[in-house]
C-alpha cells in the first residue's frame, strides 16, 4: 500500500511538471456545421467533410468565404494551393485553389498530397484485375505526379494498406496483417521514394493511423482498450511515447507540435478535449476545456477541431473551432 502511494505521488508530480493548461491564445468558432469530420488546415484554408450533405467544404479564415468543393467528398486534405478528396465511387479529385481546375484519378481512395505528388490506395479488383479477384481485398500504394501525369505503383498488392500520408520524399501508412482467422495485427510502414525502400516504424501489431512531418512520424498505439500516442524520429532512429493516459486518439503534427484528442469520462458522461505536445521541450498542454472537442488538425500556431458544446447530447452539431496560439 505504501509503494502504491509513492507511485501515485510521483505520477502526480510528473503531471504537474509536464502538463499545463493553455493560458495564451484565443478560441473562436469559425464555422457552424453538422456531422463534421476529417478536418485539415494549411495557411488560412480549412477543409472538412460533412456527412449530412455528403460534401467536401473549404473555408477561408481571412475572407470568411465558404466554398462547396464536391459531392460525396470523403477525407479532404489540403497542402499548398491544392486540395484532394475521394468520392463514393472511389474516384480521387485534386482541386487547384488558384486556378479552380480539377483532376480526377479513377478507381482509387484515401489520398494524401505533398507538392505535385498524390499518394493513394488502389484495390486489386478495382485496378482492372480478373473477376476472380472480386472478393480479394488486397490493395497497393500508388503515386501520381501532377506535373508529368504519371502514375507509379509503389508496393505489391497486400491485404489492407490504408490511409497513407506523405511529406517530401517519404510516405507512411498503416498495414494490417491477418495473424489467423478473425485475428489481425497492424504496423506503421514507411516508403522512401528515391530509394524505393520499405521499412517498418512500428512492429507492435497494434498501431493505427500515421502522420508525418519532416523526420517525425506520429501514430496511435492500441492495446486492448488502451490507446496512446507515439512518435518516431526516423533520422535519429528514436521512438518516444507521447501520452500515458490510455485514452488518446486522432493525432496530427506540424513542426515541433503534436495535437490529439484525449477521451475520458465525467461520471456517466463521455467527454473529450484537445491536447498539444511540444517535441523540443517535452511539455504537454491542454488546449480546450469544453469536454466536447475532438478531431484536431494543426498548422503553425493554428489548431482547428470540432466541438459539440451546443449539442452535447446528440453531438449532431459539430461546429469547427480555431485555437490561435499566437493571438
UniProtKB/TrEMBL annotation:
Judging by the UniProt lineage, the source's domain of life is: Archaea
Q: Fetch the InterPro entries from UniProt.
A: Beta_prop_Msarc (IPR027618), WD40/YVTN_repeat-like_dom_sf (IPR015943)
Q: Which Gene3D superfamilies match?
A: YVTN repeat-like/Quinoprotein amine dehydrogenase
| PANTHER family recorded | PROTEIN TOLB, PROTEIN TOLB HOMOLOG
* Protein name, per record: Cell surface protein
Protein species of origin: Methanosarcina vacuolata Z-761
Amino acid at each position: 500500500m505504501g509503494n502504491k502511494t509513492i507511485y501515485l505521488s510521483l505520477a502526480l508530480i510528473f503531471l504537474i511538471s509536464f502538463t499545463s493548461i493553455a493560458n495564451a491564445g484565443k478560441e473562436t468558432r469559425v464555422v457552424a456545421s453538422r456531422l463534421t469530420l476529417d478536418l485539415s488546415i494549411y495557411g488560412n484554408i480549412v477543409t472538412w467533410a460533412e456527412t449530412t450533405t455528403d460534401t467536401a467544404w473549404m473555408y477561408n479564415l481571412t475572407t470568411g468565404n465558404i466554398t462547396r468543393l464536391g459531392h460525396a467528398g470523403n477525407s479532404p486534405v489540403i497542402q499548398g494551393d491544392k486540395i484532394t478528396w475521394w468520392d463514393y465511387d472511389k474516384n480521387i479529385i485534386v482541386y487547384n485553389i488558384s486556378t479552380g481546375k480539377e483532376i480526377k484519378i479513377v478507381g482509387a481512395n484515401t489520398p494524401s498530397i505533398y507538392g505535385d505528388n498524390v499518394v493513394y490506395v488502389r484495390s486489386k479488383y478495382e485496378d482492372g484485375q480478373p473477376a476472380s479477384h472480386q472478393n480479394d481485398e488486397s490493395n497497393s500504394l500508388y503515386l501520381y505526379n501532377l506535373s508529368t501525369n504519371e502514375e507509379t505503383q509503389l508496393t505489391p498488392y497486400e491485404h489492407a494498406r490504408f490511409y497513407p500520408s506523405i511529406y517530401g520524399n517519404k510516405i507512411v501508412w498503416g498495414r494490417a496483417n491477418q495473424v489467423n482467422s478473425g485475428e489481425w495485427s497492424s504496423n506503421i510502414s514507411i516508403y522512401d521514394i528515391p530509394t524505393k525502400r520499405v521499412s517498418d516504424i512500428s512492429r507492435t501489431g497494434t498501431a493505427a493511423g500515421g502522420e508525418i512531418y519532416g523526420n517525425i512520424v506520429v501514430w496511435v498505439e492500441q492495446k486492448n482498450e488502451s490507446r496512446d500516442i507515439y512518435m518516431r524520429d526516423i533520422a535519429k532512429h528514436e521512438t518516444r511515447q507521447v501520452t500515458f493516459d490510455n485514452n488518446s486518439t486522432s493525432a496530427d503534427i506540424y513542426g515541433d507540435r503534436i495535437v490529439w484528442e484525449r477521451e475520458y469520462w465525467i461520471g456517466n458522461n463521455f467527454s473529450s478535449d484537445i491536447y498539444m505536445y511540444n517535441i523540443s521541450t517535452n511539455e504537454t498542454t491542454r488546449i480546450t476545456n469544453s469536454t466536447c472537442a475532438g478531431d484536431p488538425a494543426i498548422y503553425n500556431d493554428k489548431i482547428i477541431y470540432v466541438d459539440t458544446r451546443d449539442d452535447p447530447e446528440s453531438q449532431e452539431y459539430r461546429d469547427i473551432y480555431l485555437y490561435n496560439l499566437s493571438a
